[in-house]
Write a structure and sequence with these properties.
Blueprint lengths: L4 H16 L7 H8 L3 H13 L3 E3 L6 E3 L8 H8 L3 H5 L11 H27 L2 H17 L1
Antiparallel strand pairs: 1-2
Helix pairs in contact: 1-3, 1-4, 1-7, 2-3
Protein name: Rrf2 family transcriptional regulator
Organism: Petralouisia muris
Length: 148
């Protein structure tokens, strides 16, 4: 299974902003250095998160902060903010099966039923994971690394 790199970068940025946004001016350049990607990519992701209401960005001087509590931000919301068609890209259906073949003329209906269940399960899983949980996991990982 493939989850968009945009989603992973967005999570990286949100954890960084959660940790440092209140005390430090978090810019796309700083986030780009941390995430190892171009600041333009970061700006596009920040723009999508801002549009969704997840972030606020201070005018003029810049600096991003969370716009709502981390427990209210699900992984599903993050993914849909930065890549709205991610679930459609995850599972594709071949476009032109033969209408003359018994399997070919029915396969789209069969796959639609199966793939719809997969998408529903995936949405529920993504909704069950919050930024707060990911921040807590980051703290556990950082503690182990620092004290390992």
């Amino acid at each position: 299974m493939h989850i968009s790199k945009k989603c992973s970068i967005a999570v990286h940025c949100l954890i960084f902003i959660n940790e440092y946004g209140e005390n430090k001016r978090v810019t796309s350049e700083l986030l780009g250095l941390s995430a190892g990607c171009n600041p333009v990519t970061i700006r596009n992701i920040i723009s999508a998160l801002k549009k969704d209401g997840i972030l606020s960005v201070k005018s003029g001087t810049g600096g991003a902060v969370l716009n709502c509590p981390a427990e209210e931000i699900s992984l599903y919301r993050i993914c849909m903010a930065v890549e709205p068609d991610a679930l459609k890209k995850l599972i594709g259906v071949h476009a032109a099966p033969s209408p003359l073949c018994p399997v070919g003329k029915n396969i789209h209906g069969v796959l639609e039923i199966c793939y719809s269940k997969i998408c529903s399960d995936l949405k529920n899983s993504l909704r069950s994971i919050t930024l707060k949980e990911m921040v807590e996991e980051y703290h556990r990982a950082a503690f182990i690394l620092d004290n390992g």
